[in-house]
Every structure is written in C-alpha cells, then in structure tokens.
Amino acid sequence: MTTRRSILGFAVGALALCGRFPATVQAAGAPAFAPKTSDAGGVRVVVKPKNVGTGATWEFEVTMDTHIKPLNDDLTKTAVLVDGAGHRYKPTAWQGDTPGGHHRKGVLQFPAPTDAAKSFELQMQGVGGVSQRIFQWTAN
After folding, report:
1. 21 and 62 inside one domain
2. Are 81 and 124 part of one and the same domain?
C-alpha cells in the first residue's frame, strides 16, 4: 500500500510540474493575481494578469463581451500599464481577436516595469464608450 501511495504522489507531482494537472502552477517567486472585471456602458471587460513579475514582457488576458455595440477598440492605443511608482508603459502587442463583433479575447503585452512593482494597474480609455476603466492589483 505504501508503494502505491508513493507512486501516486510522484505521479501527481510530476503532472503538476509538467503543467498537465488542472491546478495552475506558478513560476517560482511569481505571485498569482486574480482577474478583475469592469461592467459599464453595456460592455463587460475582464482582465487577468497572465505573466507578470517575471521575464521581459508582462501579459494580460483580456476578454470583452457586449450585446449592445461592436467592440472596435484598439487596445494597443487605448491601454496603459502603470506601476506603483507611477511609471507608464504602452502596450507592445495584442495577440487575439481583431476589432469588431460582440465578443473579443486576446493577450495584451507590455514591457516589464523597470523596478519590481508591488502594485500596478491597467488603464483602458474609451472601451465601450466608458472614459476610463482601471484594473488594480497589489502583491502580497
């Protein structure tokens, strides 16, 4: 019985390390940040930090949904990342759905802040006719 438990424990650990286990495995030292939602102007925007705190690029998964108006915003022109010191970073890329339609999803990429940020926010101007949406996170 002990051998079976050992094998099962090893298999679960190996699957988690390989990223094939349902639980999300975070990079060592990288905090997990919860998704943030903004419901305004008939448009729901959900932003989930996907890759922040490590590497040269920070990534945010963005989902936009509406049943009122087409989603034509170019987030590379309307979004900005602001670190805890107030430094502003423009997006370097959007990888996802093209403008238009009522449902869009993609990843917005930014250069990593030059200083380790304990807090940061993603600001979006004009999405869905809303002057500004602010999504804020603070590291523990």
Report:
1. no
2. yes
Q: Are 123 and 47 in contact (CB under 8 A)?
A: no
Give the distance, in angstroms, between the CA of residue 97 and the centroid of all CA atoms in the same chain: 15
Is residue 58 located within the same domain as residue 100?
A: yes
Name residue, tokens 């390390």: 17
Which tokens hold the place of 134?
A: 């602010």
Over the stretch 6-60, which tens digit does the pLDDT of each residue have? Answer: 443 444 344 333 433 333 333 445 568 999 999 999 999 999 999 888 789 999 9
140: Cβ–Cβ under 8 A, 6 or more apart, which residues?
31
Q: Domain containing 5: what range?
A: 1-28
Number of domains the chain contains: 2
Question: With helix as H, strand as E and coil as C, how does 70-85 read?
Answer: CCCCCHHHHEEEEECC
- DSSP 3-state assignment of 139? coil
